[in-house]
Amino acid sequence: xxxxLESILSLQTPFNMVVMVVLIGCTAGVITGIAKEVRKYMCHxxxxxxxxxxxxxxxxxxxxxQVVRSQSPSV
Length: 75
Known about the structure:
transmembrane, transmembrane helix, membrane, 75 residues, rod-shaped, 3 helices
């Protein structure tokens, strides 16, 4: 990793900054994408657990649907 950084920094002055900005932007995009997917997965898991809990309590499918719809944010 340090060799890659050294090779980028050894480029001519305007080009090394451009490469660094693009690299930082791409890294930030990847991290943001991963964070969004993890958040979507966690929300889905919470909803599944809620449905299982309500089903274990003996609620009907219509009642579960009403509870889930009342808790989900309106888009």
